[in-house]
Amino acid sequence: MITAADNYKKAILILSGGMDSATLLYHLLDLKIHPICVSFNYGQRHKKELVCAEKLAEVNKLHWELIDLSQLRHLLKGSSQTDDSVPVPVGQYDAENMKLTVVPNRNMIMLSIAMGIAIANDITQVFYGAHAGDHTIYPDCRPEFIEKLNEVAYICYWKQVQVVAPFSLMTKGEICTQGIEMKVPYELTWTCYTESEKPCGICGSCNERISAFEFAHAKDPLEYLGGVAHG
Amino acid sequence: MITAADNYKKAILILSGGMDSATLLYHLLDLKIHPICVSFNYGQRHKKELVCAEKLAEVNKLHWELIDLSQLRHLLKGSSQTDDSVPVPVGQYDAENMKLTVVPNRNMIMLSIAMGIAIANDITQVFYGAHAGDHTIYPDCRPEFIEKLNEVAYICYWKQVQVVAPFSLMTKGEICTQGIEMKVPYELTWTCYTESEKPCGICGSCNERISAFEFAHAKDPLEYLGGVAHG
After folding, report:
1. CATH number of the A4-227 domain
2. Considering only A116-125, A196-205, B71-80, which range has the smallest mean pLDDT?
3. To the nearest whole angstrom, how far is the Cα of A185 from the nearest Cα of chain B?
4. CB contact under 8 A, A155 and B149
5. From B2, B106, B152, residue closest to A108, measured CB to CB
6. Which residues face A68 on adjacent strands?
7. In this structure, are residues B53 and B17 in contact, taking their beta carbons and an 8 Å threshold?
8. Residues A186 and A148: beta-carbon distance below 8 Å
9. What integer pLDDT is reported at residue A3 of this predicted model?
10. Alpha carbon of A13: minimum distance to chain B alpha carbons (Å)
């Protein structure tokens, strides 16, 4: 239950447990915004990110809500993230086959629920960590999606609510650079699209994380399968 | 599981179990569209509408999905539909106190999920039964909401999907008139906002239904509390 005591914080953060939303969390904390963190189980293979999200909220003493949409797994089929018959693509993140990882309308579903929670709790801002590297793969991370979604947010209720994506024009490398400066505990984040105990290091998502740490001239605190360290 | 055999029907219908979406179902059947029906448990008091939705799908041999969002009940608080501390308002449907029945962002949440299901199943149209009488009470039934939502629908994925609300400029009386002509089995619909065994006949929603049958010069097949018949 969200209590009135949480309201003054005036923000909802969609916290996936990945690098981008974790960095966004520390960005908000820097701005003295203590968001209510909302995570979603939409049947993704990589449930480890949810464990990370919970931990990130816990270490920062933030209210955390896990919304269970796992029932949608078989209805939003066709993505490697939710459909066991679709293998996780390996290779470069910007390759055509990475489109197999798109869960149809996932962001709009998550943002709609977060907007509803915001309105019901007198909160006006919903933050999410879409970034520029996502644009070619995830249609629902593009600035034009965020802009149009905000036009709906403006009229979906008698009170207005706003969706804010401060990283939407930044690359993952730039986000990581900012996060390293803010001492984001990246050991509490999960990026790999597989279910392995350690990140695989070869899926598109791992490749993108590895490149981001290289860009930031920083060492990734996670150890990859095969004991390889990156950064 | 939605199978390929369902795809040719090329429509999703948000079927609440109320009069409007039931009439929309028969309108689609008249057009030879056999929609996949999707209903939502968002923690509403009046669960009877879901029993009606299931029955309407069953008698028409349609695929029916019930999406369980009851977890959102305590997060989307403040509406009489989901919050036990807010009494169901009685009286006229267009009165200011009917705004207590608004569940924040409910339609956008339901439509986003229905859009995701449509995209994942190669379906291009999502139908819902918003009508003109709702406009002053439910911001997410207004034509401008539907228009803006469609602008998001247009870019939320690499394939396009469309939200269609054919009754958005019709009154409930006009919808009922059309439904009576199409022989919609209104005994399989539920409108009352309370949990009573029979409709209360005094809540705003019952009042609106009673007026619609009066407008259509038809008899409501439901019997109201106290044995009163209407129409």
Report:
1. 3.40.50.620
2. B71-80
3. 29
4. no
5. B152
6. A41
7. yes
8. no
9. 56
10. 15
Token digits for B172?
């409930």
The domain segmentation of chain B, as residue ranges, is: 4-227
Which of A2, A104, A148 lies nearest to residue B75, judging by beta carbons?
Answer: A2
The terminus-to-terminus CA distance of chain A in angstroms comes to 41
Contact (CB, 8 A) for B126 and B115: yes
> Residues B90, B126: contact at Cβ < 8 Å?
no
What length does chain A have? 231
> The pTM is what?
0.89
Rounded Cα distance between A144 and B49, Å, is: 37
CB contact under 8 A, A148 and B155: yes
* Rounded Cα–Cα distance for residues B108 and A201 (Å): 37
Measured between CB atoms, which of A67, A117, A139 is closest to B156?
A139
What separation in angstroms does the CA of B111 have from each of A58, A70, A102, B116?
32, 17, 19, 9
Burial class (CB in 10 A: 0-12, 13-18, 19+), B90: middle
Average pLDDT, chain B: 87
Range with the largest mean pLDDT of A203-212, B20-29, B120-129: B20-29
* Cα nearest neighbour of A99 on chain B: B158
Q: Residue B5 gets which letter from DSSP?
A: H
ipTM of the complex: 0.87
> Considering only CB atoms, which residues of chain B are within 8 Å of chain A?
1-2, 65, 67-68, 71-72, 74-78, 99, 102-109, 111-113, 115-117, 119-121, 139-140, 142, 144-145, 148-149, 151-152, 155-158
CB contact under 8 A, B113 and A109: yes
Contact criterion met (CB below 8 Å) for A157 and A6: no
Tokens of A21: 């939303």
Chain B, nearest residue to A68 by Cα: B71
Q: Which residues of A71-230 form beta strands (DSSP E)?
A: 125-127, 162-164
Q: Is B162 exposed, middle or buried (0-12, 13-18, 19+ CB in 10 A)?
A: middle
Query: Cβ neighbours of residue A161 under 8 Å, at least 6 residues apart?
Result: A115, A118, A119, A123, A124, A125, A126, A153, B105
**Residue B112: which of A1, A2, A109 has the nearest Cβ?**
A109
